[in-house]
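Reviewers of the previous submission asked for a worked example of the structure-prediction workflow described in the proposal, so we include one complete record here. The input consisted solely of the amino acid sequence. No template or homolog information was supplied to the procedure at any stage.
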Amino acid sequence: MAEVLFYERPVPLNRIDHKDMRLKGVPNLKYAMKAHSVPLTGTEFAIAARDLLIVFAGNEAKDAGPVALLGLRQDENLYIDAEGQWAPDIYVPAFVRRYPFVLAEKPDGQPGEELTVFLDEDYVGFNKTEGERLFKEDGTDTELLTKAVGFLGEFQQNIARTRWFLEQLNKHDLLQPRNIRLQRGAPDSADSRSINLNGLFVVNEEKLRTLDEKTTQEFAKEGVFGWIYAHLLSLSNIDRLARRLELRELAETPASDTRN
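From that input alone, the workflow returned the following structure tokens.
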């Protein structure tokens, strides 16, 4: 997964350097405005499928990972408006919600666990005067930091489970390429253009139906089918995403062009 997608200056959390650090709530998600897709864990599929398009992205099927497609143009998240507000009643992926913290590999030579907590020191909510402290006066974690680290740990466990899920999909050759092509404007008009999204994969339903009995039982026991069907059901959300793009383009069109 693209661990530091939003992070401008990620540094390891340090009880000495950050002993006076506070986190002030920021009422927007502007840091995710240019994310046209974000990684998704399998445990999120069921709830995310109600709102978002879930596909597998990569150069090849063996390298593809699940993502929530948030936009159809480069560097554009259609679920965030100009003020940085996420669309109401639309699921926000955990990848987005964990910011400004992240679990990542620590610098070479440092002792301890392989993964450590990083924070984005450039996040506008960090300061030394306003908001909730990360550490208490005695240097122990505050409730805010404890919850944040707990969320990161849970997210990491879900990543591990999702990797196992991907191994099963590839083991049984269940992913097939899927190109998304959208036509914008009338086909023969001057403003006619198309949007092509490549490097995407979806589960092959025909191969899914022909799995052997042993694999079918294992998939049922481990909850694999639930994740797969949530993914397949989410594919219809391409229409909703295209409609969001249409509305965004209409908002970008000058009034004079609209009248003409």
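The radius of gyration is 21 Å. We consider this example representative of the routine output the project will generate in years two and three.
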